[in-house]
Amino acid sequence: MGYENIRVETRGRVGLVTLNRPSALNALNSALIAELNTALGSFESDEKIGCIVLTGSEKAFAAGADIKEMGSLTYMEAYLNDFITSWDQVSRARKPIIAAVAGYALGGGCELAMMCDFIIAADTAKFGQPEITLGVMPGAGGTQRLTRFVGKSKAMDMCLTGRMMDAQEAERSGLVSRVVPADELLEEAMKAAEKIAGFSLPIAMMTKESVNRSYETTLAEGVRFERRVFHSMFATEDQKEGMSAFVDKRKPQFNNR
Ligand code: CO8
């Protein structure tokens, strides 16, 4: 498929999606989201892909939902077409996804980054939920995911004042996993993705599923879920290979089975 709003590449076992609407600071419109969903779907079903990286430009990961497209929406259009629900496919991906964020990640851009499994930020990154300045509030998980990442006080501060958080504050607060110099952002994100993609894909997927479970359930249930999944790993060839390789002092050759 020819993409107009994103660039899609495969580098080894890593699928790379670059948001590419420079004239609107990668504002998310329905055409971009449709392309993103198609690209994600094809990486998800491609067994040669073990990890996905989602990035934007130097100036903006994404400056939010496209205000010009959204501004005239009516309540009935939003309700009947279930506006936004098809926009969160990233959060339903089963393969690991890393967000590599430089510049603005605002509104839907911040929400999209938070739908990924972890965020690597350039030192230029700026995160914010400025929807209140537009007369709305976050609509793609901002009030929920940001609160889980940074806690109630800071999430309230961000959502109620609309202020931006720089990369250092985002790292201190637990929103991003690491901050790197802007010119090394993609290299660092690709290195992390290649590392993940070099492990067993089903084991990485089960690990992701288990970590995500911690958001949805009690500690006791979560630990029970983890135990069941952990037990199931002894049915995989990759567990046998990983542990035999350690004992034999050689590099494991995982075959994703
Ligand atoms: N929508 C549409 N166009 C935008 C957006 C946007 N969110 N952000 C920037 N642009 C456009 C500008 O209109 C401008 O276009 P033009 O040149 O035609 O006038 C171009 O991008 C460059 O922008 P600026 O001239 O404003 O650039 P600056 O460097 O001066 O400022 C800012 C950069 C601070 C990022 C500024 O552009 C800004 O404040 N943008 C809006 C940020 C915002 O409010 N975002 C939240 C949007 S609401 C939202 O996201 C709801 C979420 C819904 C769910 C989404 C699901 C994933």
Automatic annotation (TrEMBL):
The superkingdom listed in its UniProt entry is Bacteria
Does the record's keyword annotation contain Ribosomal protein? no
Under Gene Ontology molecular function, one entry of this record is: enoyl-CoA hydratase activity
The record's top EC class is lyase
Report the InterPro entries cross-referenced here. ClpP/crotonase-like_dom_sf, Enoyl-CoA_hyd/isom_CS, Enoyl-CoA_hydra/iso, Enoyl-CoA_hydra_C
Q: Quickly give the catalysed reaction.
A: a (3S)-3-hydroxyacyl-CoA = a (2E)-enoyl-CoA + H2O; a 4-saturated-(3S)-3-hydroxyacyl-CoA = a (3E)-enoyl-CoA + H2O
UniProt xrefs under PROSITE patterns: ENOYL_COA_HYDRATASE (PS00166)
Q: Which GO terms describe its biological process?
A: fatty acid beta-oxidation
Task: Check the record and name the Pfam families matching this protein.
Answer: ECH_1
Keyword Translocase listed? The answer is no
E.C. no: 4.2.1.17
Gene3D superfamilies per record = 2-enoyl-CoA Hydratase, Chain A, domain 1 (3.90.226.10), Lyase 2-enoyl-coa Hydratase, Chain A, domain 2 (1.10.12.10)
Q: What does the sequence similarity comment in the record state about its family?
A: Belongs to the enoyl-CoA hydratase/isomerase family.
Function summary: Could possibly oxidize fatty acids using specific components.
Please report the name of this protein according to its UniProt entry.
enoyl-CoA hydratase
Q: Which organism is it from?
A: Roseibium suaedae
